[in-house]
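PT: before anyone asks, these are the final sequences, not the draft ones from last week. 875 residues across everything. Please model them as a single complex and drop the result in this thread when it's through.
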Amino acid sequence: MRILRHFVTIALLTAAILSVVLPLPGQNNSHLLTAAEAQGSTLTIYSGRSEELVGPIIEQFQADTGIAVEVRYGSTSNMALTILEEGANTEADVFFAQDAGALGLLAKDGVLETLPAYILDSVEPRFRSADGLWVGITGRARVVTYNTDALSEADLPASLLDFTDPAWQGRLGFAPTNASFLSHLTALRVAGGDDAARAFLQGLLDNEARQYENNVAAVAAVAAGEIDAALVNHYYMYRVLAETPGAPLASYYFPGDDIGNLVNVAWAAIVASSDAKPLAQQFIAYLLSRTAQTYFAEATYEYPLLLGMDADARLRPLAEIETPDVDLSDLDDLEATVNLLEEMLNN
Amino acid sequence: MTRSSLFETRRVLLLVCLPLTGLLLLPTAYLMARAGEVGLTEAADYLTRSGTLRIMGRSALLVAATAGASVLIGVPAAWLTVRTDLRGRRWWTILLAVPLVIPSYVGAFALVGALGPRGMLQGALEPLGVERLPSIYGFWGAWLAITLFSYPYVFLSARAGLMQIDPALEEASATLGRSGLATFRHVTLPQLAPSILAGALLVALYTLSDFGAVSIMQYNVFTRAIYLRLSLNLDLAALLSLVLVAFTVALLAVSARAERRTYPATGRTHRAPRRVALGRWQWAAVAFCAAVVALALVAPLGVMAYWLVNGVQHGETLRDVFAPLQRSLRAAAVAAGVSGLLALPFVFLQVRYPGGLSRLIARAAYVGYALPGVVVALSLVFLGARSLNVLNDLLGLDGYRSFALLIAAYVVRFLAQAIGPARTALLQVNPHLEESGLLLGRGRARVFATVTLPLMRSGVAAGVALVFLTVMKELPVTLLLAPSGYDTLATRIWSASSEAFYARAAAPALVLVALSALSLMYVLEPDD
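LR: through. Structure below.
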């Protein structure tokens, strides 16, 4: 009898849970197309940027404009692939991407809509698409974050390419499969050719540079003293410092317009099949408003790209960073980079 | 029982299973179509490159190592909690099962924090002059992380198996003068083997599909190649995923072959087996369980608790976790319940009506499980957006995503977990009992409900528990297919940890573990 009782308990439990849940499809009733929605008054954003980073400003946008917004979060490449797989049926009106590398997936075949001039003109030309398909929202500088117990600024090399020097044996970390590094490697290919990129990567591997999954893990390893320095984006250090104020961390920019000083962008674009293009424009314009740009500067430690805006006081001002002569649009040539990386990592 | 009624039942089972099999194979069919866009020579060239072959070899090595280690942890743990007078065995049962709910990227990251070259352990040893621990990265780290967070597959499955075994045979062996160890080896183990194999198979397939642990531990295996390709397009990633499907089919064949040499127990008495008195081994048994729980549960929880406290002290604001918790529980409970129900016709067809077709149907369930979640999710995105959209437009719904689609996706991903333990449970039910029921004039369904199901319940419950725990932590399918705004504990953890907001990741992670432990108490039957 006890056996039966247990079974009945489980069955009842399942039934109870099911009954709680079954009304859920009814949740869709709230998604029933109202007349307003049919005319496109709900904005759907596919965000390759994490909710932790952009959730608050999207909520602020809703509060300020009264526009209903739905957001889907995921990694930038997964969100880009989702838009491609959904094709013309995609719900996305706006794509908000973390990294220039994803341009290769979308900035072709008419997936993106041309942006109006007033949006494009609010940032420097080096941070927007030449053909108007995307606009940079915030800047993400590639830097060397180092452990101040192990190194001082004078110990760091004059060029990114000098990290292939055997003196750096076992002391450097990087995140080879991370989108930011892939973009940086693409920049190196664009500026110096495939052979230069190959030689650089080979040098890192010969030096047994530690490979991390992402920037976060690499910065954590620097803070722990596992490695002396890592090739990462500038803002992770500030987030670690916010939670662990005494962490022995500092960041280094290379002198001049070294290839190490690439400033990548988080960017936004309008999806061509959108049925809410005016709202999409309004949203992107909002991201480039003083309100949103101040938010990014203060909450995510990224570089605001709106002309005339200042970054966090601890950061080297954007105007003082000489970025290498690489067009961010050219970073869409990711395929050769991935082939190169794969060939070198797997051998 | 007449021949015609036999075939009648088979027809009904096929009627249920065939459409479901179609659903389970949809992602694979789509991947074949996408992989077809890669030219034949390009595909052959890519797959036979030395680099590609090397990562395939690494994947195979890791699969063997994690499956083996999981058996070495899971089987003794199951035996101790089911068959001995281990102190606090009810608690150990829950504690030993819960590590399954820890997302591998969180667990691996916490392990690095605890055991890394300059981790917490090194910090504790620093006064002794230890500057740096041996590197955890690479094969050993990946092996450790995956084993620690997936041995519960073997543990739960072996537990269910042990509870089905008729103690009479063991007692007969003891009466005939065999020692306890000899009895275990020659009587218990052969009967338990199908359960162990089912669990080890799940570990092996999980290892194939894992991305989080291997990438944090920097061990370059097949899934990393797939993810890297996904930053370009789906075509080559689809081709590589199909190689994983081939691996899966091979593993299933190996496991089926191994199973043929075992003797599934038949029949179950309602009498509980006599518990082995551990005597002076008691402390060793407790130490074993404690060591496993310390590494697989306490270490990650400790690291997360540290992040939480540290972050809160420095003014980090935490977000409400109640709503995502509710969504996680809802999705996991429904997916587990549905999978448990759907597993029944599958295993019944496979065990009671063996044959080519039923074998094929049974294997279809495992294919979705070995594929990386994001690949399954992307194929359902394609199919959903192009087919369901038409339907939903007619119904006046916005978009193709719904709770029902999400559950369907979970079932495609995880049905195998419900099938494994349920199947071994049914193998252990003596068909003569069912036949007696039929001869006494009861209907097929009635016999199933009153005879078969109660006898296989521990296996079904174990399967339901497995699906529940894995859906609680599931990420890629949830991100891509959940209705807008349906964020769960797992998506919250990912969102915060991927951006180095550790404190914000820790709160939902701790809630995830605590609530999963509580829920398990309902699913895992008290055994005494």
